[in-house]
Amino acid sequence: xxxxADHVSASIPESLMLSxxxxxxxxxxxxxxxxxQNPALAKQAGAKVQGILSPLGQMEE
Length: 61
Known about the structure:
By secondary structure, this protein is mostly helical. Helix content is 85%, strand content 0%. The chain has helices spanning 2-8, 14-37, 39-45, 47-60.
């Protein structure tokens, strides 16, 4: 249990955090674009994905 406590107090370097956030943003953009191009796939992904995409669909109209 002491090992877990040691890891909790460790800090993540800002450069690493920013690079991981950038990768996450790229992944988010990729999936949103994929779902917009394939609405059937977005439907399979469920209500949460449809909720994410619904404001985007309103902007495109």
